[in-house]
Amino acid sequence: MENVDEIESVLQRISEITTASPYAGEIYVVGGYLRDITLGLPPGNDLDLVIDGDAIGLAEFLYKSRTALYRPVTYPRFGTAMVQIPSQSGNSLAVELVSARSESYSSNSRKPSVTRASLLDDALRRDFTINTLMRNIHTNELLDLTNRAMNDLHEGILRTPKPPDDTFFDDPLRMLRAVRFAVRLGFRIEKETWAAIQNCSSRLTSQAISPERIREEFIKIVDMPGDKFKAGMEMLNESNLLSEFMPEILPTQGCIQGGWHTYDVWNHTLNALTLLPDDAPRSLRLAVLWHDIGKPPTRTEEDGSIRFYDHQRVGAEMAVKIMRRLRFPTQEIKETSDLIALHMRPGEYRSEWSDAAVRRFMRGVGEQREELLTLVSCDQGAMDLPTENRERISSLIARMKTLDEAMDTRTIISPLNGLEIMQLLKISEGPILKYAKEHLIDEIIEGNIALGDKENAIVKLKEWYPNYIKAGKPGNLTEETIMSKVPISLQLYSVRDDCAHDLPGVLRSVAAMGYEGVEFAGFYGHKAEDVRQILDSLNLKCSGAHISIDQFNPDVIEETIEFHKALGNKFLIVPSLPSQFTSTKEAWLEAANRMNAISDALAPHGMFTGYHNHHTEFHPLDGELPWDLFFGNTKKEVIMQFDTGNAMHGGAEAGPFLRKYPGRARTVHLKEYDGANDKALIGEGKVKWAEIFELCETVGATEWYVVEQESYAHPPMECVKTCLENLRKMGK
Q1: Cβ(519)–Cβ(564) under 8 Å?
Q2: pLDDT of 199-253, one tens digit each?
Q3: If DSSP states are collapsed to H, E and C, what string results for 196-229?
Q4: What's the whole-model pTM score?
Q5: Residue 636 carries which DSSP code?
């Protein structure tokens, strides 16, 4: 196994550099790596080492000896550190160093009390016996301190090192992990451990475990091959865990369908999961899981026939609710819910459809066409469907392939761009541009305009526009069709004085305006848990927070992570850097290394860091832009929080940078710029909004638009309300 060679090369390097040090003979590899290689499985890309001594001291030693690539990220309270060690191939491996310790928990806190302890104590605090094996990296001595690890690995048994009630009280997430290990490894959960999971399942609450941690454990089951995914869902149900974090799916059990269905909705869904291809993306996997979740609430019986009217729409809405509660990324929520909402569409196909009708269908399902057809295949494969119905889908696929050869509907663009349409119709920027472009694309699909035919496009647009105005409505397009799926939040620095006076009141007002989230720039003395409670009550999301880079220093990073976990925030953005990181090219490169290390430290917690620009990053420094020095040398996980107004102030447009660093603009600051009016609100200045929105929603992977206003012609709260209203007029 290639990974084994990589990891062993790192262990060998650490062993060699520490042989003549105080750490000789005190370092043990522990946990998942030993479990997996003992079972003949490929190990993951991380490595855990337990030290019978000072782990933080070892981390500093590895850095000073140039064995570790970056300065270690340390957690003094827990006696742990994270370092990056290069392997023999040149790749870097994340290595967690832990001082042997014991932990104790109180009933009202998720933070353990940690004390230095023996290797045996460290083994007993771990989740399952199969993860307690230790191997000395200097002598290769293998320790089975529980006297059960090796036997349980060979017998395929999952049990806890301590009494299971104690283990699951300490960390209720271990109950989900037990299901994952049992399914992934094909192990059986020992009787007392299984009984404890069933009895302790109610501990899996948002008060004890953050939604993000539950999600990350759940998706490890979702990402398994279909038969294991099915087994995982069955075990989650039988363990009572499913009712704690996904109760919406329980009514599918016993929901009889009739017709071609030989199973109730629950068992139909489980069988559909087994038909998923191994390389299916997560959004498709979740869509198969939830494609019929809307059936129980829509079930009716008429004249002996069972119907589920509009269950696909209801199911999509239910999936959105579940995914938001578990804090899934916005894009993944959109992809999953879109598939669920569309999953009945292919079944509507008939051979008498015109080519134009098929092309409209193809365009309507967009980039997820293949995923949608796979979803339909899984759905149909789990029912007793007549041959003619299955052949209908095959016929549709063949017909789409033929039409694609003549014209790929996914790449069709309007022959006229936004500026040309605005000049022709004498209109300003706004939703009508999308209506007009969609009309011209429909004309191409119908065969009335050739690709790129501007002359006939002008004729068709002039014919269409008066009817559009007369009808007073946007033709066949719905408001949902044109509204951006990227939610809009407010950077609270825009209303900082109001926040300092009454943060809860500001949040209520912002929610009433229609903002979907807020980005923080300070918390004005409020606890994270209290702010989170207010956000949840208002259905507001935390789109991020601006925090000083000092809050990632080793002595406080643990508290920073815990605070933002409680807040429900995954985007920890550095809004500016001190001069030590910005004065020279070398300083910017050091800043990039520092942010890479922070990114690595946040990754295990599902969090991300990033940097927010000012105008100075676009002024050349020794012939290079600081923005390029920084983002050209940071990992793709480091977010490029582009501020549109600040960039224009520095003489730069957003477009080239959004294209240059694709997938990195996960949150974008929407700020207006007008050199003649420093108080211009969004939509009143020179920013090319249409281009920015298009790039954010195609190459930027943008999850949040963040409104920021720093100068005011009116009271700040009034200004940010107008900014949102202007964005809505643009179709956002």
Answers
A1: no
A2: 999 988 766 788 888 999 999 999 999 999 999 999 999 999 999 999 999 999 9
A3: HHHHHHHHCCCCCCCHHHHHHHHHHHHCCCHHHH
A4: 0.65
A5: T
Instruction: Provide CB contacts within 8 A for 595, sequence distance 6+.
Output: 574, 609, 611, 630, 634, 638
SS3 content of the chain, % helix, strand, coil (to 5): 50, 10, 35
* Residue 306 in tokens: 């069972």
How far is Cα 202 from Cα 378, in angstroms, rounded to an integer? 33
Task: With a cut of 70, say whether residue 104 has pLDDT above it.
Answer: no
CB 141, CB 134: distance < 8 Å: no
Q: Is the Cβ–Cβ distance between 716 and 494 less than 8 Å?
A: yes
Question: Is 180's pLDDT higher than 60?
Answer: yes
Backbone φ and ψ for 5, nearest 5 degrees, come out as -60, -40
Instruction: Give the tens place of pLDDT for each residue, 241-258.
Output: 999 999 999 999 999 987
Q: What is the DSSP string of 432-496?
A: HHHHHHHHHHHHHHHTSS-TT-HHHHHHHHHHHHHHHHHHTS-TT--HHHHS-SS-EEEEGGGGH
Q: How far is Cα 681 from Cα 582, in angstroms, rounded to an integer?
A: 30
The CA distance from 691 to 700, in Å, is 12
Count of CB atoms within 10 A of residue 690's CB? Answer: 18
Q: How many residues does the chain have?
A: 732
Partner residues linked to 98 by β-bridges: 50, 80
The token duo for 644 is 């549109």
- Sequence-ordered alpha helix ranges (H) in 554-623: 557-567, 585-602
For tokens 């392939």, the residue is: 401
Distance CA 6, CA 49 (A): 16
DSSP 551: G
Q: In degrees rounded to 5, what are phi and psi of residue 338?
A: -65, -45
Per-residue pLDDT, 367 = 78
**729 vs 732: CA distance, rounded Å:** 7
292-338 residue pLDDT tens:
999 999 999 877 788 888 899 999 999 999 999 998 888 889 899 99
Q: DSSP state, 410? A: G
Identify residue 222 by its one-letter amino acid code.
Answer: V
Measured between alpha carbons, how far is 120 from 122 in angstroms, rounded to an integer? 5
